[in-house]
Amino acid sequence: MERILVIGSSGQIGSELILTLRKMYGNENVIGTGRKTAPSQAVLESGPFEFFDAVNKNDLYDACRKYDINIIINMAAILSGNGEKNPMLAWDVNMNGLLNVLEIAREMKMKQVLVPSSIAVFGPGTPLDRAPQETVLKPTTMYGLTKVAGELLGDYYVKKYGLDVRGLRYPGIISHETLPGGGTTDYAVAVYFEAVKNKKYDCFVKEDTRLPMMYMPDCIKATIDLMQADFSKLKHHCDFNVGAMSFSVKEIADSIKKRIPEFEITYNPDFRQAIADSWPNDVDDTAARMEWGWKPSFDLEAMTDDMLNAITEKHKKGII
Ligand code: SER
Fold first, then answer.
1. Among the atoms of ligand 1, which is closest to the Cα of residue 279?
2. Given 61, 143, 170, 201, the catalytic residue
3. Fewest CB atoms within 10 Å of the CB: 52, 141, 238, 284?
4. CATH code at 167?
């Protein structure tokens, strides 16, 4: 039986992933954790939740023993923008937290660990178009640097200890339930919220900035498909490229304007422009497609319809 610990389940992806996992494996079998941020009402009411910092190994150990955990999903991370404001915190959370997860999973002989990586592993030297699975990984951010090290560390535990560790390089994730915090791709979420609330958005990257992106339902699907993939068919483990769509800020704005004609966007690039410029436009995800059958469902137009409908509903109800 699966007993799953989702570290970081108050965050953008964790808060939605945990609800899907609870439906699949039973509410009591999927335990949420958070460092500081309170979980959503839905997460709190549907199953167990513990507050602790995974950087504290004893606390993580206690939770794993208390709930008899055999799968850990480590969604806790300090993202690219916040990581540049506080590089030491990014190192501590992203590296020491991960090392604790891997060591405890090894010691307790767990079934599986899932550790997401990111397009932030790329940097100067990576081809900008269709960044290959195997390519130069020389990121310029602390976040990217910890993600490269995390991929290598996960692969090391697979090879050295036979621990089943898996991971995928998430692109920018767009969603309407929980806001992302401190990432470079956050503009692609904020633009939708601001379009509904204020009919205008001041974007922190230039209009021709183009990055790989994915809508949350595809992100959840990719994560669960990789968890459930047959281990013996995996040639890669912790570093799968996963693509879904790629668009410039102008293309998102145009897609919103088709539905909200009075929407206006302005551009005021800040330090995150250089981060965005160091990441590729899109990725080659052939390995994920071949090894575990990855296939996305949402394109920009389908996502814009869904995002605007959901956010408009929340706005009408006064939730946002
Ligand atoms: N969304 C992340 C960031 O912008 C990339 O994985 O930092």
1. 5
2. 143
3. 52
4. 3.40.50.720
